[in-house]
Design a protein that fits this description.
By secondary structure, this protein is α/β, with parallel strands linked by helices. The chain has one domain (about 1-175): Glutaredoxin. The protein is built from six helices and six strands; from the N terminus they run αβαβαβαβαββα. It has a six-stranded mixed beta sheet. Strand 2 (about 60-65), helix 3 and strand 3 (about 90-95) form a beta-alpha-beta unit. The longest helix has 16 residues, at about 1-15.
Length: about 180
């Protein structure tokens, strides 16, 4: 137990000191998620009013962002690359906090790969989901492991191309990333 605790703090210190985001680790209840926030996610519709697609990967990345948020814009290319590179493991659910759908569509023109099969964009204009996750700054990201009933939280802009980020995810979730 001490080793796990020590590893968590080492990763937090490395990421903070290297300009990366802080990472917090949480364990969930065994067997099935009892997290009402996940239930709320799957009741939402995507940007084009389609029902949520079934998740067929082991991990869900829930990213809260906005087009007017410079750290979100900075993070987006590396997050997309990470998700695409590891699409057999990860599904990205990108929850925009923008006021209008037009702002998001304009942003997608700059980053067309956000429309990939491994990503779903949701307009959380009411910010109900953001409140449920206690998001008070952007970007804020949660990674859920469906099989292990764990999640990881990344606060602030993360450079998903950094080896330290992949190493933290590999170590915590015990997965072999590409």
């Amino acid at each position: 137990m001490k080793e796990t605790y020590k590893m968590k703090w080492i990763l937090i210190i490395i990421l903070i000191s290297s300009g990366g985001a802080g990472i917090w680790f949480y364990s969930q209840r065994p067997k099935h998620f009892q997290d009402a926030r996940l239930e709320q996610i799957f009741q939402m519709r995507d940007l084009y009013n389609n029902p949520m697609k079934p998740i067929d990967t082991d991990f869900i990345i829930i990213n809260f962002w906005a087009t007017w948020c410079p750290p979100c814009v900075e993070e987006t290319p590396s997050l997309i690359r990470f998700t695409e590179k590891n699409k057999k493991y990860f599904t990205l659910l990108a929850y925009s906090q923008d006021s209008t759908k037009q702002e998001i569509e304009s942003f997608i023109k700059t980053f067309p790969s956000l429309k990939s099969k491994s990503a779903t964009i949701i307009h959380d204009d009411s910010q109900n989901l953001a409140r449920a996750f206690f998001v008070n700054k952007l970007p804020e990201t949660f990674i859920y492991s469906v099989k292990q009933n764990k999640y990881m939280q990344l606060s602030g802009s993360t450079d998903w191309d950094r080896p330290e980020v992949a190493a933290a995810i590999k170590k915590y979730f015990q997965v072999n990333l590409d």
